[in-house]
């Protein structure tokens, strides 16, 4: 992708992550812990015991991973779509790619993106699950001192495979989702752009 598009994707992805991360933290706590009675109870307890920063635990690595993840996703998608249309019998320049090809290319990008994303997502969840108090003096120190320490601890105690714990589940979630995402994007562009052409990543 051109530098401008790459930076725009990174900045927009980072802003979306910052805005959504507090909700993701609440979701992770509710999914993995039983000490909360609901969304409001979880939100109040996080703020009371961990301050506003408690909602943003584990956010640094996902922000850092956005360029890598997006590069893999859109790069694989574009090249897979090019390969599929190059081997088809349709006139590539005269006709847009079929939705089947778009879906396959999106799923292919989703598979590889999932494995790139898995370690970052695991570290994020581990840090989000730490419930140490930031506002009460004398509280026990958290197990992980930050994302780098978390990654090193997982690698030392669980080996390289430990960093990819849950990668299969992540792949099963993201692969069809991204296929549907690209099909939807392609369809909306064809419907609402003046010439019916879809902007191409990397074009």
From TrEMBL:
It is a multi-pass membrane protein. Solcar repeats lie at residues 4-83, 97-191. It is found in: Mitochondrion inner membrane. Keywords: Membrane, Mitochondrion, Mitochondrion inner membrane, Repeat, Transmembrane, Transmembrane helix, Transport. Its main location: mitochondrion. InterPro entries: MCP_dom_sf, MCP_transmembrane, Mitochondrial_Carrier. GO terms for cellular component: mitochondrial inner membrane. Pfam families: Mito_carr. GO terms for molecular function: transmembrane transporter activity. Belongs to the mitochondrial carrier (TC 2.A.29) family. PANTHER family: MITOCHONDRIAL BASIC AMINO ACIDS TRANSPORTER-RELATED (PTHR45624), SOLUTE CARRIER FAMILY 25 MEMBER 45 (PTHR45624:SF6). This is Solute carrier family 25 member 45. The gene is SLC25A45.
């Amino acid at each position: 992708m051109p530098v401008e598009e790459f930076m725009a994707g990174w900045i927009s992805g980072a802003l979306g992550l910052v805005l959504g991360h507090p909700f993701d933290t609440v979701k992770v706590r509710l999914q993995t812990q039983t000490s909360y009675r609901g969304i409001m109870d979880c939100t109040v307890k996080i703020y009371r015991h961990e301050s506003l920063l408690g909602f943003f635990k584990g956010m640094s690595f996902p922000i850092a991973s956005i360029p890598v993840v997006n590069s893999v996703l859109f790069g694989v998608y574009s090249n897979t779509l090019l390969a599929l249309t190059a081997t088809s019998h349709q006139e590539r320049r005269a006709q847009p790619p079929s939705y089947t090809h778009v879906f396959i290319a999106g799923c292919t990008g989703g598979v590889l993106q999932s494995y790139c994303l898995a370690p970052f997502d695991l570290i994020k969840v581990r840090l989000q699950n730490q419930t140490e108090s930031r506002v009460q003096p004398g509280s026990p120190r958290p197990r992980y001192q930050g994302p780098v320490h978390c990654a090193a601890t997982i690698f030392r105690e669980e080996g390289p495979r430990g960093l990819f714990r849950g990668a299969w589940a992540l792949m099963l979630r993201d692969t069809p989702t991204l296929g549907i995402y690209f099909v939807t994007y392609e369809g909306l562009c064809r419907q609402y752009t003046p010439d019916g052409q879809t902007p191409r990543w990397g074009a």
